[in-house]
Amino acid sequence: MKHISILVPETAVPAAIVDPRYMFTAVNQFLAAAGKAPLFNVQLVALSKEVRLNDGLFAVHPDRLTTEIRKTDLIIIPALSGDMKAALERNKGLLPWIVQQYRNGAEVASLCVGAFLLASTGLLSGKQCSTHWLFANQFKAMFPDIEMVDGSIVTEEQGIYSSGGASSYWNLLLYLVEKYTDRSMAIHAAKFFAIDISRNTQSDFVMFQGQKEHDDEEVLRAQHFIEDNYQDKISVDQLAGMYAIGRRSFERRFKKATNNTIVEYMQRVKIEAAKRSFETSRKNITEVMFDVGYTDTKAFRDVFKKITGLTPIEYRNKYNKQPVPV
């Protein structure tokens, strides 16, 4: 039997505790209905006998304390809420236990922004990780030695798992169910919970905002210029010249400050504008393409799909139900 320890940190998102418990206990029920023995021993684990969440609105009474768990097979770290730095400070007492259990052979999975707590253990150093797209820039700034996989739903490396944002963690739970049971059980669970088992990216949910939490004034001015003039054709040389900086030096500073090359940043700003147009207007693909400064249909389609994971037509059909004139 696999022992699953779902952590109950302070500031945890209640649903991210309840949902994994529901998933694995439901699989036990599916197995029982098929005349098989249950596979998972699921327990809520915490540092204290009561953890109050959402400003005291919810109280969780864990099954076991960390001091009572000598060995477990899988640790699930739920999403945290509020300020991440404050949340990590409040939950730092969990870190030694997570590290020790991993060294003893346990696997560790973080859900959504639970990745911040997982990263704080040091176990992710030099490895890949995914988290909610909205927190990706903050994660990169806090943990520069970890490779943030933008848009990914699930990452796995050396027994450590992470998931994308919000409801994306259901796909990681399915992934773990399949690993510990088989494909047919994962499909059964996917149908029961109405989850798209094939979803592997959160790219089409991402709203690009640009990394502006840096102190490079010229780069920040360039970002605002790009965002205000996305419909125009702007060259790297033009931007560098505007701020009297050599091209190579400016490219290096821009990448360091924003985690994007200048060309990538311009592409993402244009595609974000195109997404908004597809969501709210009745314009066709060609009109939107010209509005955001593209004149080559193939180039626009390729960049759009690379960033969102969908073609322009697929994106428009998914997010806009208004009839579009031919």
Strand content: 5-15%
Considering the protein shown, what is the CATH homologous superfamily of the largest domain?
Class I glutamine amidotransferase (GATase) domain
- The tally of helices reads 14
CATH fold topology of the largest domain? Rossmann fold
Which CATH architecture of the largest domain is right?
A: 3-Layer(aba) Sandwich
Low-pLDDT stretches: none
The order of strands across the largest sheet is 5-2-1-6-7-11-10
Radius of gyration: 23 Å
The average pLDDT score comes to 91
What is the general shape?
globular
Order of helices and strands: EHEEEEEHHEHEHEEEHHHHHHHHH
Which structural category do the helix and sheet elements fall into? alpha/beta
The number of domains: 2
Give the helix proportion (percent range): 40-55%
